[in-house]
Design goal:
seven-stranded parallel sheet, alpha/beta, Rossmann fold, globular, binds NADP nicotinamide-adenine-dinucleotide phosphate
Length: 252
Amino acid sequence: MTRVVLVTGATAGFGEAIARRFHAEGDRVILTGRRQERLDRLQGELGERSCAVRLDVRDQAAVAAMVQDLPERFAEIDVLVNNAGLALGLEPAWKAELQDWLTMVQTNCVGAMTLIRQVLPGMVARGRGHIVNMSSIAATHAYPGGNVYGATKAFLTQLSANLRADLVGRAVRVTDIEPGLAESEFSLVRYKGDPERAADPYRGVQPLTPADIAEAVWWAVSLPDHVNINRIEVMPTMQAPGPLRVARSERP
Ligand SMILES: NC(=O)c1ccc[n+]([C@@H]2O[C@H](COP(=O)([O-])OP(=O)(O)OC[C@H]3O[C@@H](n4cnc5c(N)ncnc54)[C@H](OP(=O)(O)O)[C@@H]3O)[C@@H](O)[C@H]2O)c1
């Protein structure tokens, strides 16, 4: 059975890889993101089983209009991948920009919530659907400078669990994906376009690739309908949870 798959943030990284993965399996994909030229390029490449809609997930009216105005062949969304998101800055909380925090909350939390609220009623009415939320290991593993970014991802992880609680007994599945270090434009966005600093997290390590994450999403969605994968935490082999930090005083 072919599905209609809506991917937010399909103009780069995980979202693009996820859209390509589902499209390669014969599904119809709705590509969204803010960068029109990237959307045009990907849609041109994928062809008629794709449709592109320029969308800023923070714009609640635009999200509602998109869901309402989809072409007929794409109107019944089977899979929503809430992937659009970003981290901004890596400063300690007392130095971080408040505006960066607000942008992360608006994009990672409010954006995903808005998409869910617009798409979920149709899934419930049709008695089928799958919501995939792109959280992060930052949801559970705190790190210095992760402050509000990690909190937005914890929100998504808990929202995923609570959606499961609401949806139990209905054929709508929810999966929370929690990736570790992965190479994409993520770091360039976090460091606001500074390529030197953006390269730092990947130095001397083989990170996850967007294709690795797309494979995890594909696997969770392609399992039989009676199977719900609640959470997937995935790290590169060269990354692991560390010991708790202890700040020791200078005294001997
Ligand atoms: N890379 C990692 O190490 C990592 C690890 C764990 C979790 N994640 C999460 O995975 C998701 C994808 O990240 P990525 O690594 O693929 O980063 P990326 O390469 O920077 O891609 C992010 C995508 O989100 C879109 N986006 C950002 N703000 C948006 C907005 N306001 N409205 C609509 N789209 C927006 C971007 O598209 P436009 O700029 O065109 O709008 C882009 O397509 C994010 O939620 C991120 O937090 C990443």
